[in-house]
Amino acid sequence: xxxxxxxxxxxxxxxxxxxxxxxxxxxxxxxxxxxxxxxxxxxxxxxxxxxxxxxxxxxxxxxxxxxxxxxxxxxxxxxxxxxxxxxxxxxxxxxxxxxxxxxxxxxxxxxxxxxxxxxxxxxxxxxxxxxxxxxxxxxxxxxxxxxxxxxxxxxxxxxxxxxxxxxxxxxxxxxxxxxxxxxxxxxxx
Length: 189
What we know:
By secondary structure, the protein is α+β, with helices and mostly antiparallel strands.
């Protein structure tokens, strides 16, 4: 036998689907909210961590800049000290230079054979000398010895002539003795 149901179908199945969809939608919203909450917390924590690192690095940078400034000041002071030392060495070299120069002129002088009548030093670079010698050979030997000295750069003879003093025939001379370059920086006497 065949049964025909002419009653309309019940729509219960659709209601159950809508409820499932609403529950599913709410679950998706909750999951989305939770993920947004955790993502927001993670990003906030990361930003805070990075800001702390940045603040720490900026503080370190400020400390390093202060130290660099101190180092630069020390380097400037060190350079000034080096310049002062160089000036002092130069002054010491120049102070002892006339003494060494005169010592070279006098130590090469043959005793009791050459006599100076006058010495005139100009700016510790040269001497104008006048004097007498027993003869030309003694004076020529003296000039040769002076030219061999490392402190003397040149001897310029201006004049020689015969000069009679009492019963002696002597050689009168006038010359210029020039000092050489100052000795190296380490030899400042």
